[in-house]
Design goal:
The protein is an alpha+beta fold and 61 residues long. It has a single domain (4-60), classed as Ribosomal protein L30/L7 (Ribosomal Protein L30, Chain: A), CATH 3.30.1390.20. The protein has two helices and three strands. It has helices at 18-26, 42-50; strands at 4-9, 35-39, 55-60. Strands 2-1-3 form a three-stranded antiparallel β-sheet, with no helix packed on it. The longest helix has 9 residues, at 18-26. The radius of gyration is 11 Å and the shape is globular.
């Protein structure tokens, strides 16, 4: 089974740069404390890196 990441939005995107806000939204996160599961791939890791100060990430599997 492939590894995946559980990504949770823990801080608001208010006041963030538009590119960071777009990255968080493209991960599928819209509300605080909302979680999504994404595959552990380099492109997803890069998106998480851009917004790491707003997110909480755990590896699953």
């Amino acid at each position: 089974m492939a590894k995946s990441l559980k990504i949770t939005l823990v801080r608001s995107t208010i006041g963030e740069k538009p590119k960071t806000r777009a990255t968080v939204e493209s991960l599928g996160l819209r509300k605080i404390n909302q979680s999504v599961e994404r595959p552990d791939r380099p492109d997803v890791r890069g998106m998480v890196f851009r917004a790491k100060h707003l997110l909480e990430v755990e590896e699953i599997g």
